Amino acid sequence: MKHLFFSLKMRERVMALAALAVAAFLWSTGAWARTRGGWDNWQALEAEAKIQSSWMAKEKEIRDAATAAVQGLDAGHGFDEARLVAEAVAAAKEAGLVAAPTWQAWSSFTKTSASAHPMWPSVNLRCNLIAARAER
Fold it and tell me: What are phi and psi of 62, to 5 degrees?
């Protein structure tokens, strides 16, 4: 390598050194970006670990709250789809939100063991809900 470099003319040596300098500069800036990216990733992982450890520290408290929340629930005494819709309509009428609320059932819903019925309120009901809240 040394013999090849010194066998070049002065102009060729300068051009070769300039090309080497440009390549070294590009490599060093890329290395800095990779190092900076690694550092940022490490800081994000440390922040995520702190959040996770705080949630793990609250595990007993969360389990106790969940146990207390489900104590009064009985899976056999839920509403079926028709009764759930009737209760929702009655609650809307009782609250005076709309004269005749309409509900659209989600047609692609598949039944599960849970007694649930996803309902999509109509745009009319949503607008009336917003207006009722604004009047308060």
Answer: -70, -45
